[in-house]
Design goal:
Elements lengths: L18 H15 L3 E2 L16 E3 L15 E5 L2 E5 L6 E4 L4 E5 L4 E3 L7 E3 L9 E3 L25 E8 L2 E9 L4 E6 L5 E7 L6 E3 L8 E3 L7 E3 L6 H4 L4 E5 L4 E6 L4 E3 L9
Parallel strand pairs: 1-5, 8-9, 14-15, 16-17
Antiparallel strand pairs: 2-3, 3-4, 5-6, 6-7, 10-11, 11-12, 12-13, 13-14, 17-18, 18-19
Length: 273
């Protein structure tokens, strides 16, 4: 072999004349590739102001002396340009972007941002490009507050939080297939049911599988809590339209508030306690 297997630096051969030429060429390789850092990848032709030792990543479509060197490293040494073909696993710093890149089988990819996928204590895949295995995940603020944003592309797409047990979904909240917020739940057989929906146009809320046509629309019966007659909540604080079930030894009736007092539902008589 006349060169090293990885960097292809030339060996000094037995009885070789002018050994210093081969030795200096090997040093040139080391100087260009060790602790690899290039100035930029934005130049499509050699910069006229290049200084001794400057290094660049040659972009696609480069011209002049860089033509045909796309993806290779260009180093200006001894007054001329030398080119180096990268190998898989090389890591390079790009100074004008302050970014780290790694060479895969065919191209340079950013190590940190953007990264095609990332796994923390677990493996990411093409669908779950960010995967985290942890007891907890902390997202905290850096300023006045913090927002977690889930964005979807089209109205008919989904932007939601899905809650699973043993990889089976049991609850989902978000905007799924529409832009109205909803909460859905599923039983062990996988049957999903609408639990709550909020109309994005009106703000109306529906409980159950009905469309909200009023500020609060309940699709089914309401079972209010039980109150002893002597411990009724304040009607004014409860608000007009509040509904309760009054229970004593003699009385079991529904009452509602008109905002001032509790009234029997059956005969519109004031409740006396």
């Amino acid at each position: 072999m006349e060169t090293t297997p990885n960097l292809k630096m030339p060996y000094i051969l037995p009885s070789q004349a002018q050994k210093h030429v081969t030795h200096n060429e090997a040093l040139r390789y080391l100087d260009a590739l060790l602790h690899l850092s290039v100035l930029s990848r934005q130049y499509s032709s050699p910069p006229a102001t290049a200084q001794e030792g400057d290094r660049y990543l040659v972009p696609a479509g480069a011209a002049d002396l860089w033509e045909g060197q796309a993806g290779n490293l260009a180093a200006f040494m001894d007054g001329e340009w030398f080119f180096f073909v990268p190998l898989r696993g090389w890591i390079m710093h790009i100074a004008d972007e302050n970014a780290l890149f790694i060479f895969t089988d065919s191209q340079w990819r950013a190590l940190l941002n953007p990264q095609p996928m990332a796994g923390i204590n677990t493996e990411a895949d093409a669908y779950n490009r960010l995967a985290v295995a942890s007891d907890a995940v902390l997202l905290t603020h850096n300023g006045a507050g913090h927002q977690l944003k889930i964005n979807k592309n089209l109205r008919e797409n989904t932007a939601s939080l899905l809650f699973q047990s043993n990889w089976t979904g049991y609850a989902e909240m978000g905007i799924t297939g529409e832009n109205n917020f909803s909460i859905k739940v599923a039983d062990d057989s996988g049957q999903w049911r609408q639990a709550l929906r909020i109309d994005s146009a009106s703000g109306n809320i529906a409980i159950g599988s009905v469309w909200p046509t009023a500020p609060l629309h309940v699709g089914g019966a309401i079972r209010p809590g039980n109150y002893e007659a002597g411990f009724l909540p304040d009607a004014e604080q409860s608000g007009a339209g509040a509904l309760i079930f009054i229970k004593t030894d003699q009385v079991r009736k529904l009452a509602f508030s008109d905002g001032q007092q509790w009234l029997w539902i059956d005969n519109n008589q004031s409740v006396t306690v």
